[in-house]
């Protein structure tokens, strides 16, 4: 395949997903957001599998990557719903913190322009003001980027698996005309016994 093919595009997408997920993982660690930390860990593993499968022509690994991509999209949609506080969901929901104390988005107090007041050891809810962008929007932007990359990666993953399957079928088809296929080595080595050939005709003096 050429570098303009879907295979190379999927490799580039996997690298972008790795960069975006590692960046998100760092800030989730700083905020002790344990559920997103676990999700990011599995995302990194599955993206590496997809990257390896694409580079090494292993469609099964790409299928795992695509399957996880569907779950990853669903999780990030849930994260957006949490920060939008849809229904009974709130920012303080245990689904993100797993009930851990002092677990809150790092961007809540460290966003651009944020000023924290009443931030003492006894204060669990410090007052934050002056933020250029509220932390809920920062988290939703992170989730939206992950959703966009996962959807594009899923589409290209299915396409690359299809291309790999078509190539395997074409090799089998070509090998079907021969006694040995393209994926099967000959079991026995044939030996041709040479016999002398006699030509009838006048003797040459």
Automatic annotation (TrEMBL):
One of its GO terms (cellular component) is plasma membrane. The lineage of its organism: Eukaryota, Metazoa, Chordata, Cephalochordata, Leptocardii. It comes from the Eukaryota. It comes from Branchiostoma belcheri (Amphioxus). One of its GO terms (biological process) is regulation of sodium ion transport. The gene is LOC109472997. Keywords: Cell membrane, Membrane, Signal, Transmembrane, Transmembrane helix. Residues 1-24 form the signal peptide. InterPro entries: Na/K-Atpase_Interacting (IPR008516). This is Sodium/potassium-transporting ATPase subunit beta-1-interacting protein. The keyword Mitochondrion does not apply.
